């Protein structure tokens, strides 16, 4: 369809202006408005190139479960309208005007990652230069699909893709300029900070059709301070209390009850903080593994307390002889390995203390009180009675020695298992610190 310039109200492809009027006349622009369905070129073989740039203003939310990133962009489009050209000298020096975007042809820009309805606030006007160059600034609330990697949460870095496509499209600014502008506006944002914006222009072919696309890679990094304060530090304090609980004397304090209460408190802590942890079907974040390992270490600590309590209570009350291999392996070799020194023998009790309950100086407790010696009968003792009394006292002395040995076995095992537990905690802390350093180096 051929339309003459006179029919459009255009003279030499320029809008007309009247004397005393600022800008082109309404009649000449109305002729351009009537051509809205057509691409604004005189020769349809001439391409209309759309230039795109955007500024990442805010990261509104990251949903790890649905793998969706919600951002707010300031999108800027540039293209050339060959019919909106006028001479500023003839139009009272006017070089730029604004017109409703609904009255003009606008390029069709598609964002391939868009997964929701566009509920952005509309920007109704475009700015037009006297040379026919149009600039359209619009605000875009972009809900896009993004493959989120949450393994290193809360020290994760996400790389999301924004793909803009049209028949003829190119970047309006360099990717470094877009990244710099976005960093200036994103400094006041909350949880996320922008690392860099990268991009690449390419051609996408669908059969015989070719589409120009611009792919932007937006790299954002999470600020982990909130999660360190609310998750990692309280968990570390509970682990520290669990370590310090080993200094409670196992013979006089119910250490097992204390550790069970600590495990219960840690479980409640995990339930309360469960909402802060992301969850996806792709994997488990490392912080979840960290909490699981901490809980497992607390259970191991409780198991160690159960073993020591069994040695101090169960074996000593049966008055069984300490096996020879236990004396050789534990009381000799392991005691020397952990530098455990048994206290010197206590001198025999005086006559005033014979009537008092006898306790071991190292294993004093309600379960190892020695039975009081029977008082001698008022009548003269026979030889048989003296022999029985001596045998009874000898049996009590042997029981006291067995109890003393079992008590030292329990203490040696307690010291040994405590040091092994400290070694596990140290290795675990070293792994966490190394991962932290690797994350710092990568970012």
TrEMBL record:
Record domain Neurotransmitter-gated ion-channel transmembrane: where: 231-356
Tree of life domain: Eukaryota
Membrane-spanning segments: 225-248, 260-277, 289-312, 420-441
Keyword Transmembrane helix: yes
Subcellular location, record wording: Postsynaptic cell membrane
Reaction(s) this enzyme catalyzes, per UniProt: Na(+)(in) = Na(+)(out); K(+)(in) = K(+)(out); Ca(2+)(in) = Ca(2+)(out)
Primary site of residence: membrane
Stored CDD domains: LGIC_TM_5-HT3
One cellular component (GO) term of this entry: postsynaptic membrane
Membrane topology classification: Multi-pass membrane protein
SUPFAM superfamilies reported in the protein's UniProt record: Neurotransmitter-gated ion-channel transmembrane pore (SSF90112), Nicotinic receptor ligand binding domain-like (SSF63712)
Domain named Neurotransmitter-gated ion-channel ligand-binding: residues: 38-170
InterPro entries recorded: LGIC_TM_5-HT3, Neur_chan_lig-bd, Neur_chan_lig-bd_sf, Neur_channel, Neuro-gated_channel_TM_sf, Neuro_actylchol_rec, Neurotrans-gated_channel_TM, Neurotransmitter_ion_chnl_CS
Gene3D superfamilies in alphabetical order: Neurotransmitter-gated ion-channel ligand-binding domain (2.70.170.10), Neurotransmitter-gated ion-channel transmembrane domain (1.20.58.390)
Keywords assigned by UniProt, alphabetized: Cell membrane, Disulfide bond, Glycoprotein, Ion channel, Ion transport, Ligand-gated ion channel, Membrane, Postsynaptic cell membrane, Receptor, Signal, Synapse, Transmembrane, Transmembrane helix, Transport
Gene Ontology MF: a single term: transmembrane signaling receptor activity
Family: Belongs to the ligand-gated ion channel (TC 1.A.9) family.
Chain's role: Forms serotonin (5-hydroxytryptamine/5-HT3)-activated cation-selective channel complexes, which when activated cause fast, depolarizing responses in neurons.
PANTHER family, sorted: NEUROTRANSMITTER GATED ION CHANNEL
Protein name in the entry: 5-hydroxytryptamine (serotonin) receptor 3A
Species of the source: Myripristis murdjan
């Amino acid at each position: 369809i051929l339309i003459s310039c006179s029919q459009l109200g255009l003279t030499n492809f320029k809008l007309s202006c009247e004397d005393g009027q600022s800008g082109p006349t309404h009649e000449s622009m109305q002729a351009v408005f009537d051509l809205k369905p057509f691409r604004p070129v005189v020769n349809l073989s001439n391409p209309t190139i759309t230039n795109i740039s955007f500024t990442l203003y805010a990261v509104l939310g990251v949903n790890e479960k649905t793998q969706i990133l919600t951002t707010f962009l300031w999108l800027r489009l540039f293209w050339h309208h060959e019919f909106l050209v006028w001479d500023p000298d003839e139009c009272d020096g006017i070089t730029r005007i604004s017109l409703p975007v609904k009255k003009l042809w606008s390029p069709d820009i598609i964002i391939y990652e868009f997964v929701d309805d566009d509920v952005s606030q509309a920007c109704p006007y475009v700015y037009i230069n006297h040379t026919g160059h149009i600039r359209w600034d619009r605000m875009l609330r972009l809900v896009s699909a993004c493959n989120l990697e949450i393994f290193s949460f809360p020290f994760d870095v996400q790389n999301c893709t924004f793909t803009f496509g049209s028949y003829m499209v190119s970047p309006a600014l360099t990717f470094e300029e877009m990244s710099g502008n976005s960093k200036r506006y994103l400094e006041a944002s909350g949880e996320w900070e922008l690392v860099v914006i990268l991009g690449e222009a390419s051609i996408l072919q669908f059969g015989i059709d070719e589409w120009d696309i611009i792919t932007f890679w937006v790299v954002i990094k999470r600020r982990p301070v909130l999660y360190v304060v609310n998750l990692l530090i309280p968990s570390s304090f509970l682990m520290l209390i669990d370590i310090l609980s080993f200094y409670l004397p196992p013979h006089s304090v119910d250490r097992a009850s204390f550790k069970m209460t600590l495990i219960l408190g840690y479980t409640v802590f995990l339930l309360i903080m469960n909402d802060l942890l992301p969850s996806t079907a792709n994997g488990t974040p490392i912080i979840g593994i960290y909490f699981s390992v901490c809980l497992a270490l607390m259970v191991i600590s409780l198991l160690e307390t159960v073993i020591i309590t069994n040695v101090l209570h169960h074996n000593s009350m049966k008055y069984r002889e300490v096996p020879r291999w236990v004396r050789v392996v534990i009381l000799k070799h392991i005691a020397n390995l952990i530098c455990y020194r048994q206290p010197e023998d206590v001198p025999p009790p005086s006559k005033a203390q014979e009537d008092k309950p006898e306790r071991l100086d190292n294993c004093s407790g309600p379960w190892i009180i020695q039975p009081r010696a029977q008082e001698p009968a008022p009548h003269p003792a026979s030889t048989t009675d003296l022999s029985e009394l001596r045998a009874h006292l000898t049996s009590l002395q042997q029981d006291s020695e067995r109890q003393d040995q079992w008590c030292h076995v329990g203490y040696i095992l307690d010291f040994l298992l405590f040091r092994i537990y400290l070694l596990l905690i140290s290795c675990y802390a070293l792994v966490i610190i190394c991962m932290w350093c690797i994350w710092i180096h990568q970012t």
